[in-house]
Amino acid sequence: MPRVAAGAMPPGGAVAAGPQDITAVMHLLNSSSEDEQATAAWQLANMLVADDNGDLTQQVISEPSGLLRVAQLMSSSSSSSSSSSSSSSSNSSRGRLQEATAITFSFLSRAGQKAKRRIASTPGALAGLVQVLASSNQFAQMAAAHTLRNLADGGLALQRQIAAEPQAVERLVQLLSSSSQGVQEEAAGAVSNLADGGSALQQQIADVPEAVAKLVQLLGSSSSQGVQWQAAEALCNLARGGLALRRRVAAEPGTVERLVQLLSSTSQDVQQAAAVALRHLGGGVSHCCTLEQQIAAVPGVVEQLVQLLDSSSLGVQEAAAGALSGMNSHDLTEQQQDTAALQALERVLLLLHSSSQDVHAAAAETLCYLTAGAWAAQQIAAKPGAIERLVQLMSSSSCQRVQEEAAAALCNLAGGGLPFVKQVAAVPGAVAGLVQLLASSNHRVQVAAAYTLSNLAFGGSLLQQQIAAVPGAVERLVQLLASSSQGVQGAAAAALCSLARGDVTLQQQIADVPGAVAGLRALLGSSHLGAHVAAAMALNHLAQGSLSLPERQAADVAALVPAPPSTAAAAAAAAMLVPTAAAGAAAPTNPAAAAATPAAAPPPPAAAAAAALPATAGLAAAGAAVTVADAAAELTARVQAARLSRQRQELGTAQGQPSSLNAVRLSRGRDTKRSRGSSGQDSCSEP
Known about the structure:
This is Vacuolar protein 8. Belongs to the beta-catenin family. It comes from Tetradesmus obliquus. The model is unreliable at 1-11, 284-288, 550-662 and 668-682 (pLDDT under 50). A hairpin with a 2-residue loop joins strand 1 and strand 2 (660-666). The protein has 39 helices and two strands. The chain is an all-alpha fold. Among the domains are: 16-76 and 93-166, Leucine-rich Repeat Variant (Alpha Horseshoe); 175-279 and 303-313, Leucine-rich Repeat Variant; 338-428, Leucine-rich Repeat Variant; 429-547, Leucine-rich Repeat Variant, CATH 1.25.10. Strands 1-2 form a two-stranded antiparallel ribbon.
């Protein structure tokens, strides 16, 4: 998150003043004497330092002519102070004037959004500040960089306006090599805040020659913790710009190693910034497994992150938990996995009882990481109260990020097999809490809840009935089939598919919900492979279990299934897709044999047509010879393929387990930029 610098203290100390003094000083700025101008500028700067209640600052901000005059003097002093024809006394006055006007702007830039916008809109102000960055006066450079740093905290419009100023970004990058640590810190802070403005600005900064290299150098070469802090935050923000930028930052020699070293800093700000940077460099997604492996390979990284879970700073705890969650189990050696699980588990479970919702979310996210391994999942499930606390946070937290991460942790546990499913479902309020989250306004929360219900429903008929018995459970899942998010549609279809595996009564309950069959049919044409396959499988279950379903849908089949070559071929294809009414066995697989077998009573036309619905989902051409078993086999292949591609979908990523076809694992990758707290993760304190 952008940081607002404190400002440079002008020489001479603070001077108490009133509105009339400000008016007099502003008048003196119009003097023709450079000495008087410089003196007036310093007086103004000192008055702003002493302005504890902000009244004088607001007076200056509210006078556009005054701001314009300060900007004019700053620009003129910058353009003429380097002139060789000027006398030494004249250059001295202009140098003092340049420094004083830059410091004046630095204090004004702290007065809120209105002040930032007024400064940026003052003609010549930004150009003058960029000119001062090239000054030989390091105090003036520091004040100008500080002002730009604060202005860049004013939102995307101001960030873009600064970055569009010729040479602004380039000169800030140059100042990263200054001999003054104060200048380095302010320049790094300005770069960091600009890099918080999105991918275009991140790319613009990274494209400046030596920008990344200089930031990495500051991580290890500077003795100033403030410089290290701002450099780490700048690299963190750059790493949020996408896979290419993450690789570019990580490829700079020493980046990962120096960030890991900073985890042991005595400054909590530095520790937090380094941990968040490591998290974003890894990215938590499969695309970046090589980067995550690079981070995990640094000696001591897991141990140091685990130690930070005991920090007295909630921000450090959250950042460390997030960094651990970003390292998927496949990125760590077996020894590291055991170390991480053993050392982190107790600490993470304690963090679930923190007073901070952000820490709750990060701890739950870390549990998602730990549950990626069966051994760690067993340890978590065996801890008294662990699952209960996750259910409590999921159900009672007012923070959507906590809801999402807690539900996702439960999803991963429930994806570990029947014992885990039963343990999660047995917690009072677990199923009801998940159903409640289906009504969330947050798509990611809905995805996590629906997939968790899907995993629970795969535990057998008793659990399916338990879920379906919760008021509104089936109805809400059906409503989500029409969500604007394909990820939500896929998760809801998966849950309905798992429920539809139950008995005829449950299948009938689903089919009777208004819009259920129509919603599933609509998803057969979805470009989201997970939604497409889950809907087809759900319809297959419903069609086999409910006679009223095909009867209701008979009139709609013609719109979905292209007309076959002949009536005989259609009857043969239908016969091969529908089990016989008497024994439930598959019909003959040969079209000719099916047509020539008078002993077998043909299925009801409506039932045959409805059973052909799954075949319309790209599983088999209309009229082709395919059995229910064949369709199921192809569906299985589609589901397995869907698990590999689902991580590229908008919300959540599902990774299946070979031993459990319908189980879903949610990974915690975050490529998409979302509102962030100071640690760079989603903040529960922000709207």
